[in-house]
Write a structure and sequence with these properties.
This protein is an alpha/beta fold and 459 residues long. It has a domain of 182 residues: Rossmann fold (3-Layer(aba) Sandwich), CATH 3.40.50. 35% of the residues lie in helices and 20% in strands. The protein is built from 15 helices and 16 strands. The strands form five sheets. The protein has a six-stranded mixed beta sheet with strand order 13-12-11-14-15-16, sandwiched between helices. The protein has a three-stranded mixed beta sheet with strand order 3-5-4, with helices on one face. A hairpin with a 3-residue loop joins β12 and β13. α2 packs across α9 and α4 packs across α6. The chain is globular, with a radius of gyration of 24 Å. The N terminus is likely disordered.
């Protein structure tokens, strides 16, 4: 192993390059905890394994939740691997786990899937968390807010094809800056050239548009280690991995929210607000949900079984509560986190959730994130919805687990607000509470409840 001595003195001792890199790894982790504690707690739960044969500075094996790191590689390029650069790589690998990229690959081309995942992650870290892009990192502005699946579909149309000579673009190509619509097939996406250089840890990627302009960058050759392994797993083995990743994400979410609440007591929160940065809500939810306020008044006449009496529960008995004990509007909020929902749409869903909880007094909300299963559920009171919130999902689309979770928790809402594109499976029976579907897609019908187009609600 080649070790380069550098002149950093501590108590008269000279620090080696290896010691310097190890120190930077520790400092980078602590910086992530201050900046984005959700990602820190994902990293914290990964097993660590030094592998100086790894053709990349770091790599994550999603099938075993192991983070591999190559100290020797970082020593050779010690000036490039600053604390900030290492922190970016740490968060990049954590997002591979949070997004379940290894499991989601399916039968897709592994090289192109790796490119799509890295473009999506670099957009998350740069566009939504505001982090500076590392040197030579692959970043495509046109793909901001798109999921890895959407990016893959766009890039796959001309993958492996050479771009046409300048001045001879194919007919029907949309102008640069406007990604093609889904399902258009070959010839309607930018050209992708992929160069795997022997003995080099990175892959060179070149994306060419019809007007001849190009975007070039590099991605790690082997940072998504599990993409090869997960293809060979049985469905049962994949389910076990998904369940364990779900546990890791739930713990990271819980710890991050606890730290956020502690910071609110006297320490300013970090300058990075979350995995999906929230914006100001655009809907007047006081007006949109006003028709449900009469339910609070109706309860004032007596008792309700919608929630228990705290006094009775303290005595070990489940009894109906007087409205005077808890006179609030109970809103269940479901967020569709399936693969058909882009990052930009998730940002909208979360921002409007923020508006419901933080802008309407006397409100208690149960927020559920669901794709094919209900991943997370958390109760929030008026004003306490945190700006740092983890997103889990990106699998199939099914609303049934949301209704099952509400029933399992015995959490009877006055109304369920469901943010989705309506490209989902529905329950066979209508629930005993009103459902308000807020859709960002083209579909505007549901078997029950009321459907409202999001754009029509903007004030």
């Amino acid at each position: 192993m080649c070790v380069v001595d550098i002149k950093i003195y501590r108590h008269g001792m000279t620090k080696t390059a290896e010691e310097t890199i190890l120190d930077r790894l520790k400092i980078a982790e602590m910086n992530i905890r201050d900046a984005c504690s959700f990602l820190y707690w994902i990293i914290f739960q990964l097993k660590r394994c030094r592998d100086d044969a790894l053709p990349a500075p770091m790599g994550v094996d999603e099938s075993t939740l192991t983070l591999y790191y190559n100290i020797t590689f970082m020593e050779h390029f010690i000036n490039d691997f600053t604390v900030d650069a290492i922190a970016y790589i740490y968060m990049h690998e954590a997002l591979h786990v949070a997004n379940r990229h290894g499991i989601r690959r399916g039968n897709r081309n592994p090289e192109l899937w790796n490119i799509a995942c890295d473009i999506a992650i670099n957009s998350q870290l740069t566009d939504y968390l505001g982090l500076p892009l590392p040197k030579n990192a692959l970043y495509v502005p046109d793909f901001k807010g798109l999921s890895a699946e959407e990016i893959y579909e766009i890039l796959s149309s001309n993958y492996g094809q050479k771009p046409p000579p300048p001045g001879r673009p194919p007919k029907g190509r949309p102008p640069k800056g406007q990604p093609p619509k889904k399902g258009k097939g070959r010839g309607h996406g930018p050209w992708v050239e992929y160069t795997d250089i022997p003995d080099d840890p990175d892959i060179e990627v070149k994306i060419t548009y019809e007007d001849g302009t190009t975007i070039e960058g590099r991605i790690p050759k082997k940072d998504l280690i599990a993409s090869d392994k997960t293809k060979k797993l049985t469905e049962g083995e994949k389910k076990l991995i998904e369940d364990y990743i779900k546990h890791v994400i739930q713990r990271a979410k819980t710890e991050a929210e606890k730290e956020y609440r502690e910071r609110r007591k006297g320490v300013a929160p970090g300058n990075i607000e979350g995995l999906i940065k929230l914006t100001e809500p655009e809907v007047d939810w006081r007006s949109e949900l006003s028709e449900y306020f009469h339910l609070i008044k109706a309860r004032a006449a007596g008792y309700t079984w919608s929630y228990p009496s705290r006094r009775a529960l303290s005595a070990g008995t489940y009894m109906p509560a007087r409205v005077g004990e808890k006179e609030v509007l109970r809103v269940a909020i479901a967020i569709d986190t399936s693969g058909s929902i882009s990052d930009a749409e998730l940002q909208t869903f979360l921002s409007e959730t923020l508006g419901i909880i933080n802008d309407i007094p006397d409100t208690v909300a149960l927020v559920i994130q669901t794709d094919a299963i209900a991943h997370t559920w958390q109760e929030y009171r008026y004003g306490d919805f945190p700006p740092e919130l983890a997103i889990t999902g990106r699998g199939g689309s099914n609303t049934i687990p949301t209704f099952e979770k509400i029933e399992e928790l015995e959490w009877m809402p006055d109304v369920l607000v469901y943010f989705t594109d309506l490209e989902v499976d529905f329950p066979d029976t209508e629930p005993d509470y009103p459902v308000l579907w807020i859709t960002i897609g083209q579909k505007t019908t549901a078997p029950f409840g009321e459907v409202r187009k999001y754009r029509s609600l903007i004030r």
